[in-house]
Design goal:
It is a single chain. This protein is mostly beta strands and about 140 residues long. It has one domain: YVTN repeat-like/Quinoprotein amine dehydrogenase (Methylamine Dehydrogenase, Chain H, 7 Propeller), CATH 2.130.10.10. Helices cover about 5% and strands about 50% of the residues. A four-stranded antiparallel beta sheet has the order 1-2-3-4, with no helix packed on it. The protein has a four-stranded antiparallel beta sheet with strand order 7-8-9-10, with no helix packed on it. Strands 11-12-13 form a three-stranded antiparallel beta sheet, with no helix packed on it.
Length: about 140
């Protein structure tokens, strides 16, 4: 499970994902589930559910979520669950996989995939890393 503090400072709640496509809003003391939000993207007019939600961060009113085993970070409108933007980090992932550190070391993508995001509100920088990565990348979001 991943916990992320709800942005409302007056009445703290926690957002939790279990790796599915659902975000659970939980009461901080009782841990009772108060709300469930299905994350989805649009393909034309059709809703397509998103799965493998992992690490989450609140950034300027949106929930940013990395997708486990995929080099993606999703920008999600939490009130609706809709993905409003996708950040494709394929090139970054390939860069780290091409280093001496990774060559012939891991056979399973789950052992070295993108797996962590954090946001610095003062510098407005997003930090990303992965499982067993020896580095943390600092990114600036354009959207």
């Amino acid at each position: 499970m991943r916990l992320s503090p709800f942005p409302d400072q007056e009445d703290q709640r926690f957002l939790v994902t279990d790796g599915s496509g659902i975000i659970f809003q939980m009461h901080p003391e009782t841990l009772a589930i108060e709300k469930q939000t299905q994350v989805y993207s649009l393909r034309g007019k059709e809703r397509e559910h998103v799965s493998y939600l992992n690490d989450m961060e609140w950034i300027k009113g949106y929930l940013y979520i990395n997708v486990f085993t995929y080099p993606l970070i999703l920008k999600v409108d939490y009130s609706t669950g809709r993905v409003v933007h996708r950040y494709d980090l394929t090139l970054l992932s390939r860069e780290i996989q091409g280093t001496k550190f990774f060559r012939n070391r891991f056979n399973d993508i789950r052992e070295y995939c993108l797996n962590g995001i954090a946001y610095n509100t003062q510098t407005e920088q997003l930090f990303v890393t992965g499982k067993k990565w020896p580095v943390i990348y600092q990114l600036t979001l354009l959207h």
